[in-house]
Amino acid sequence: MSGLKAGDQFPADVTFKYVPWTTDDVKVCGIPTTLAASKDWADKKVVLVSVPGAFTPTCSANHVPPFAAGVKELRAKGVDVIAIIAPNDAYVMSAWGKVNGVRDDDVLFLGDTETQFAKQIGWIGAGDRNARFAAIIDQGVVKYAAKEEAPGVTVSGFDAVLGAL
């Protein structure tokens, strides 16, 4: 597969790892669990954002904060699930969500372990990282998908996603 595009069915059997929220304490973490995204998101409107890595400069300063701050705006557009993925493990993603002041009922911070999903759709970034991209999936159908072709956050950023909703 060469990326996602509007009109595509969201791929089958997509899973991510995450740690369900239990406390705001970054030093305390629950047990990782598997999210069967293809199944769990089949009847939902989802904003999926991929970043090259948790705690990296552009991701932490420019990409994730607007999504964390814009939960109400996205919900007002009918979004059921807001998910951030990165090639980090579930523990790191949990800590990153907490540092961003986000609970998993607002934004899911999911590990795309070994870039499995990014590889499945062909959107791999530099090295062994995910590419920076965003998608809107509605009832299992991709409505918007855009991958950054240059450094920075434009087509995968909050404003672009909000505008596509």
TrEMBL record:
Superkingdom of the organism of origin: Eukaryota
Organism: Carpinus fangiana
InterPro entries, alphabetized: PRX5-like, Redoxin, Thioredoxin-like_sf, Thioredoxin_domain
Domain Thioredoxin: 4-165
Family: Belongs to the peroxiredoxin family. Prx5 subfamily.
Protein's recorded name: Glutaredoxin-dependent peroxiredoxin
PROSITE patterns: THIOREDOXIN_2
Pfam families per UniProt: Redoxin
SUPFAM superfamilies in UniProt: Thioredoxin-like
GO biological process, one term: cell redox homeostasis
